[in-house]
Specification:
about 260 residues, YmcC-like fold, 14-stranded antiparallel β-sheet, 14 strands, globular
Amino acid sequence: MRIPEYRNVMRCWRCTVVLACTATLAIPAVAAPSLTPHVAEYKVKISMLGGQLNTELKLTETGYVATHVIKPTGLSRIVSRGKISETSEFDALSDGIRPRVYSSIDTISRDKNRVSVRFDWDTGEARGTVDGEEVVSIMNDLAYDRVSIQYELMHDLLSEGPSDNYTMFEIDRLRSVKVRNIGVRKVKVPAGQFDVIGIQHQAEGSKRVTTLWCAEELDYLPVIIEQHRKGKLRVRATLNKYSPEPDSQTVSSEQ
């Protein structure tokens, strides 16, 4: 795989992780079901190269904060250095979650992208900076950033099931994401054996199709993540380690 292609796939991979908390929360009692604070580690394979994805979900005073970090491992570090780190803080509501703040630091790309966005649901605007330049986007309906959309899907699986469509916020536009259930199976990954449900999603206008194999035992956390492009498997991640942290200390929400 050529170096530019590997970098592009690594950047696309963070979109794959689009789509984990039985605990005492400082939020209204109607905000159920809840997600379990946890840390997780995935082994990522991109063609012949490898990477590692680490995710963490913590409680805040009004909901959660999730951090996703992906980086190359082994020989992959020869062709691509750096990492992609994304953080999303979102509120827990009675009918789901609502993003508040999203940030991303990409040191894999040559441009070294930095993004910081705050969602203002009173005005229906998302304001922030992209590589130092101010941006403002208008949101007519509820939209999710690339991290929070995963936890909204998990929340919906814990309740009445996911919707057929979601809206994902991107800096330059809003994209419709089509979702469908492709059935159940039993899988074995380094973290163990699980009964899973397959949730497949594809963003409008995208040639990439992502499948999340989600384990009910882990609050529907994906244990296998696969990305196909034009019918060919490009990326596969398997859950290597999982540790619930139901007694983790509540993190103060950003004011």
